[in-house]
Amino acid sequence: MAYFDFEPEDNFHSTWGPVVDVYESSSEIIVRVELPGVQRPDVQLRWRDGLLTITGMKQRQEAATVNGRFLCVERQYGKFRRDVSIQIPVDFRKSSAELRNGLLKIRLPKIIENPGDAYIPIDE
Fold it and tell me: Is the pTM above the cut of 0.90?
């Protein structure tokens, strides 16, 4: 027999932050955010002074829609916010994002400074 000792589900509130991976290619910064169960209208992205802010809301499925009551709630719901500092110059006006199968992928193209100013090694 299972026994769960927690408050009634009406009193349940959660704050959470989705997990994030950030990686760099030669031409862009890519940010991947796990957002299972989150719908596109519930996510907002903002860029300001080298800080990418990802905010939104993961809606909780109501017990009535599953024909009963929850006995255990371990999945996280509610509002979320993640701030990702990007200290590499990017052209945020050319950025793009897609949310597919619970994964948000944000592409931030790098600003390539005058390539003529780059150091070029000379072989001996």
Answer: no
